Amino acid sequence: MGKFTFIFLLFTLFSSHFVASSLGKKQSDVLGQFYKAKQKKFSSISKSYFKAALENVELDKVILPQDGLKEKDWINKLPGQPPVKFQQYGGYVTVNESAGRALYYYFTEAENSKSLPLLLWLNGGPGCSSIAYGAMEELGPFRVNIDGKTLHRNHYAWNVAANVLFLESPAGVGFSYTNMSRDLNTTGDRRTANDNVVFLLNWLERFPEYMNRDFYISGESYAGHYVPQLAHAILHHNKLANRTLINLKGIIIGNAVINDDTDTIGNYEFFASHALISDQTYLDIKKYCYEDNYNENKCNEAAEITNNNLKNLDIYNIYSPLCKDENLTKYPKILSPWQFDPCSDNYIFTYLNRRDVQDALHANVTNIKYEWTSCSNPLFYNWQDSPKTIIPLLKESLANGVRVWVFSGDTDGRVPVTSSKRSIQAMNLTVDQPWRYWLNGGEVGGYVETYKGGLTFATVRGAGHEVPSYQPARALSLISHFLSDTLPPGPHY
Ligand SMILES: *[C@@H]1O[C@H](CO)[C@@H](O)[C@H](O)[C@H]1NC(C)=O
Ligand SMILES: *[C@@H]1O[C@H](CO)[C@@H](O)[C@H](O)[C@H]1NC(C)=O
Ligand SMILES: *[C@@H]1O[C@H](CO)[C@@H](O)[C@H](O)[C@H]1NC(C)=O
Ligand SMILES: *[C@@H]1O[C@H](CO)[C@@H](O)[C@H](O)[C@H]1NC(C)=O
Ligand SMILES: *[C@@H]1O[C@H](CO)[C@@H](O)[C@H](O)[C@H]1NC(C)=O
Ligand SMILES: *[C@@H]1O[C@H](CO)[C@@H](O)[C@H](O)[C@H]1NC(C)=O
Ligand SMILES: *[C@@H]1O[C@H](CO)[C@@H](O)[C@H](O)[C@H]1NC(C)=O
């Protein structure tokens, strides 16, 4: 099969109407625009394979003293927060002294913190906030109410299964900042991985009780790049130091950008198989958009038809209602507990821009010049490097005994399940335990297949791009099984 030619107007469709919101972009729309920039004929984004850049970093120069900082980072209580029994911390870690780059983290300990592993969560974009999405509307302990002032508990928060660390990365995202504004125009995958590993080394110094703890990295969407790249950087530094600096055990990525060619054609396969475009349009895309048989006019025509068919629907959860009223109210909306409120982004935007909230989080201590947004635009306009595939890094993790799970919410049209299936196929792995359903609460939670070498692929039935938002119980079950290295229960053959 030939390579997909990305010259046509492929991803313009994703800037559909709900981006118009003044309250910051959705991470999925950012990803769409990023793809477009990356796939332009003369794109300046480097697509070469990824190698850790900090080849000979001197650890004693990048690891700074952290005494007393943990205590200062302790969060007594967030405004409007219901009482809880676990501890929370938030604060900055300097990752580059000369440039003045500092990354913001929010840490939700488990109630029985000592017996549970440490789990890092990263959102994608590139440029989207792990506090906005991960912490506040996906797997964190609280969700923001419609008043933009108070919080309610998420009873499926992942900090029942692990001590969960949310990191805003790279600098320029959310509350993470740099004092050298040029940094915002020169960041990319490599800088992100390097800064994140320096963050972790310093954070472990600040929280030494987690130094030898089993460590896992999780993330979604464009974090399909960040997570394996950070794993790569950790393996590299452990090797250089000839000791375990960070006790990496596994990585898990959801609806993840893995391999550009398969990710792209998988989109159209999903649209056709979910009756969003006609089979004919799909066939035209396959026929006319490949190098072998490329026909610019016909390819663009089919892409245009696709764009038109996808208007007025939420591409990152094709069965979800849209946010119709962005206004906040004093009165709570009545939603069933498993129903995700599509206007959540707006409540979070209001909440995180409040001074009392920022003070409680120990965020924005330097009075950043711009307001907090869920996704930061300047970053991805000038993104420096983004390899076409991260398959070699997934293979590297597997070869080093790092567990790899890939999961997929099966109603996402942004990085859909068909893309993930094709990307895994492209790895040429051998099936170990064949495709079967998995159960949660007596229902099918999704499907799972494992491969020789340590990779597991699991779908989550009825979940969109942000899996824990739409299927919180299934997502919690999946992460618990990942952490305990077991498969969720299924049929007995
Ligand atoms: C700090 O960041 C700058 C770019 O802003 C880079 O040139 C420099 O090498 C970095 N220093 C370290 C120690 O990584
Ligand atoms: C950035 O600049 C502010 C104001 O000068 C300073 O307080 C802060 O420590 C600097 N940040 C870093 C990471 O050096
Ligand atoms: C960053 O790039 C944008 C264009 O994408 C430009 O407008 C801006 O001035 C640049 N900022 C710096 C500090 O170079
Ligand atoms: C790495 O550490 C091991 C055991 O601590 C030691 O035997 C070995 O010589 C070290 N290798 C290098 C290259 O320093
Ligand atoms: C939201 O508030 C604005 C300003 O108060 C008002 O004009 C608008 O009608 C409201 N929107 C809805 C859907 O109620
Ligand atoms: C930081 O604080 C300043 C001043 O209080 C505010 O104007 C700005 O919007 C805030 N920025 C962020 C990113 O929180
Ligand atoms: C998978 O196999 C195909 C066909 O043999 C080959 O072209 C491709 O490079 C292989 N991919 C990987 C990741 O090994």
TrEMBL record:
GO CC annotations on file: extracellular region
Span of the signal peptide: 1-21
UniProt keyword annotations, A-Z: Carboxypeptidase, Disulfide bond, Glycoprotein, Hydrolase, Protease, Secreted, Signal
Cellular location(s): Secreted
GO MF assignments: serine-type carboxypeptidase activity
SUPFAM superfamilies, per database record: alpha/beta-Hydrolases (SSF53474)
Record EC number: 3.4.16.-
GO terms for biological process, alphabetical: proteolysis
Matches recorded under InterPro entries: AB_hydrolase_fold, Peptidase_S10, Ser_caboxypep_his_AS, Ser_caboxypep_ser_AS
PANTHER family: CARBOXYPEPTIDASE, SERINE PROTEASE FAMILY S10 SERINE CARBOXYPEPTIDASE
Family affiliation: Belongs to the peptidase S10 family.
Name of the protein: Carboxypeptidase
